Amino acid sequence: MKDFIALKNIHKVYGKGENAFEALKGVSLRINKGEFVALMGPSGSGKSSLANILGTLDVGSRGEYSFCGVDVFGLSQNQRALLRRNYIGFIFQGFNLLARTTALENVELPLMYKGIKKKQREQIALESLELVGLKNWAHHTSAKLSGGQQQRVAIARAIASKPLFLLADEPTGNLDTKRSVEIMEILQSLNSDLGITILMVTHEPDMAQYASRELHFLDGKLLSDSSRQ
Ligand SMILES: Nc1ncnc2c1ncn2[C@@H]1O[C@H](COP(=O)(O)OP(=O)(O)O)[C@@H](O)[C@H]1O
Ligand SMILES: [Mg+2]
User: Fold this and answer.
1) Ligand 1 within 6 A of 48 CB?
2) According to the model, what pLDDT value does residue 1 have?
3) Which of 13, 25, 54, 160 sits between 20 and 30 A of 125, alpha carbons compared?
């Protein structure tokens, strides 16, 4: 069987000439379907650079990335966008919701881009909000929601399009411990109940505990890779 995700010797250089900076220095990594991986490491170690490449938002300067057998760096920008829209979900530290728009509409938005009709869109969005415990908040604008609730809306939006792979870059970076734990429990159940493969960037060891595998980054290189039973 083909690997779900395979990275081979990924390098990432930002800038040119004298200003060139190598943020990733040869990263090789496989992720199997159904894994929940935490990517840890100090600020500036290249975590977001790697997450952006995994999410097909960016490409490596060198190396190979295979996603479900597809050679990602060999795709055009439009093909990558299509792959992303159909198979990959994102959650960021800043929730990136439209403030004056309701929770429901925020979750519906990516479904609109997929050309799904209004009625079905609403139904899927409501189901997604229910999964994160916010069904009763569907018609509130996101500006009226707490940070923890906003992040849950962002999760609902990310899973509405039924991604195979969910990328979360410091998803609890702006939240207190209680809200962070709520987010981790949701991620864990998306992984175990829906089988969504997750890669979560975090620098908080307490949050990494929720994952089944921990990668440690330092200075653009993978330092350690350990799985939990
Ligand atoms: N677009 C960019 N242009 C130039 N340098 C960048 C860019 N993005 C990231 N970097 C640099 O690459 C290094 C790794 O960044 P990043 O992947 O964001 O690390 P992390 O997420 O672990 O904090 C940092 O030194 C950062 O300044
Ligand atoms: Mg980062």
Assistant:
1) yes
2) 54
3) 54
